[in-house]
Amino acid sequence: MSQKMKYNGRIILTLVKNSLTPIKKRGLSSRRYRMETPLYTSLPGFYMVEAAVSIPVFVCFVVCILFFFCIMQLQIEIQASLNYAGRIISEYAALESDGSDKISEKAEFAAAEVLFRKHLKEQNARTEYIRGGELGISLLDTELEGDYVHLKVKYRVKFPIGLFGKYEFLVHQQAKARKWTGENRTASENAGWVYITPTGSAYHQTAQCPYLDLSIRSVAFEEVEKQRNHSGGRYEMCRKCGKSFGTLVYITDYGDVYHGSIACTGLKRSVQKVRLSEIGGRHACSKCGG
Q1: Count of Cβ atoms closer than 10 Å to residue 241 Cβ
Q2: pLDDT tens across the length of the chain (290 residues)
Q3: Residue of 156, 126, 154, 120 lying closest to 139 (CA atoms)
Q4: Farthest CA pair distance, the chain
């Protein structure tokens, strides 16, 4: 690239390698040299500095988004364990009808904690995000007095990226169930009552039948083909959840399908107690005898 300049009435042709490079020729005054210097220059390392700043910020943003999705999944699993433990403990209230079999509040609390942690472990919950792991989940605020079982947990979640220090936030979750304080019936009176579900095809003699107690647990999607239920059968895809599955799926001990979402209606049981004469065309359960 060339540039024409005038000096003492003569035109001087100069070769310029870079238009942004200042021009300095012998015989030119310093004032003229300052006039030829560009006001702005583009440094070659500017883009490298920009990339070094913007790429880590973008990566941190993506990691934070994925982290909050993982925390939502963890909260769902903890809530499912709370509901399971609360439902089982509420049934223990039937033993308190007799003073000799009254269960102390400390025993109920210990049983609730064991049930909660066992169910949480069966779900393979990602407790590594919690400070202290599984032991970092505290149930000390649980209330068992009165007619309700009120399970409360609290734990601290660790932020994955410490750009400005180590940050944690406190999470509270709870589940409340009414204690089972129904009237005691004799064996002859109980013989006329059975348990059913709105969509089930069988009736059950007891509410503790394994087919009514789902015992939900999560497994990796790649491992579901190797899993077998307690009857030895394989698991097929749930038609209600659709065909989109994440890294984890949910199965039950006596079920025959796997679910992509723990909120799937196939994982819920609305148990009703009805008289044997009201079961319609349902058949007896093969597990509890009907």
Answers
A1: 20
A2: 445 555 455 554 554 444 444 444 445 455 554 555 555 555 566 667 777 778 877 887 887 788 888 888 889 999 999 999 988 888 777 665 544 455 677 888 888 899 999 999 888 888 888 888 888 999 998 988 878 889 999 999 887 766 556 778 899 999 988 887 655 555 445 557 888 887 777 888 887 787 777 677 888 888 888 888 877 888 888 887 766 677 888 888 777 888 887 778 777 777 788 888 888 888 888 777 75
A3: 154
A4: 127
